[in-house]
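quick one before i forget lol
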Amino acid sequence: MRFPEFTEEWREYAIGNVLSIGNGRDYKHLHNGDIPVFGTGGYMTSVDDFLYDGESVFIGRKGTINKPLYYNGKFWTVDTLFYTHSFVNVLPKFAYCLFQTINWLKYNEASGVPSLSKATIEKIKVRVPSMDEQGKLSNQLFLLDKRIEVQNKIIEKLETLIKGIIETVISSQKPNTFIKNCLECDSSTLQESQVAENGAYPVYGATGISGYTETADVNGEAILITKDGSGVGTVKFADGEYSYIGTLNRLIAREGYCLKYLYFALQGFCFEPYKTGMAIPHIYFKDYGKAKIFCPTIEEQSIIAKSLSVIENKISVEKQILFCNQLQKSYLLSQMLI
């Protein structure tokens, strides 16, 4: 897929022939300032000195090696992150686009924590068009990046809003009802190994839908709480026919209580005091069920739940838009770059 005004063949280069790779360094000797420090996960802190000033593409040396970053300005990178400079026959923005098409994990040189060496990166072959075509391609893709960035901010603002409302309207009120008095708990023995990639009904796990089955274990609205592992205490809402893994608690409302309200109330509930286990944390309903949350009248619960649901539905729509933007970018990267 090309712009019609460009017909020249793309040239092949080794990465080391079109740019230079710099090493990051420790920043602990520096003082606080306004120059950003980047690691493999992105921005870390700000200091008073810089390694380089200008356009650069970062790539992980160790750890997260498959998420290149673009930056323009003064910066410092830590020793687990390479930066690039001295570009020849390639624009920095286009180099960033190219770096996103490379399967960096394929070049991993370690059996434990993923690692890349400068020598390995320099030998990787890439194909590059004329500078004019590079500019038009990268500008097009960067516009989409900007849209994705804006979309992420919209979602972040909405999530902050819903958390703020939960804190103000529910969590900051005096608790008056035991959790076990307004919710009852079920558990499942279904294991992840019993879940298929395809099927008629979804199976919920700690990170969302983990697979499918041909028969559903339950039908109806419920709150699903992760009770084991790193995501312990994560609260989700499920509806319809589905099954769920044994690492989740399934909670349903007792008579006189609004399930959707209780779902939002538990999002603001602190499960930390009820965690047990050192290596793998656990929470048990028999423990956190003895805690109290704030429950107003059923009419007030319904009003609060309805208001918060509107925002939650808006977040869901915005996340779908974000997914479509990311899918479009992935498609364009695969079709517009060789």
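fyi The chain has three domains: 11-128, 131-173+296-338, 182-283.
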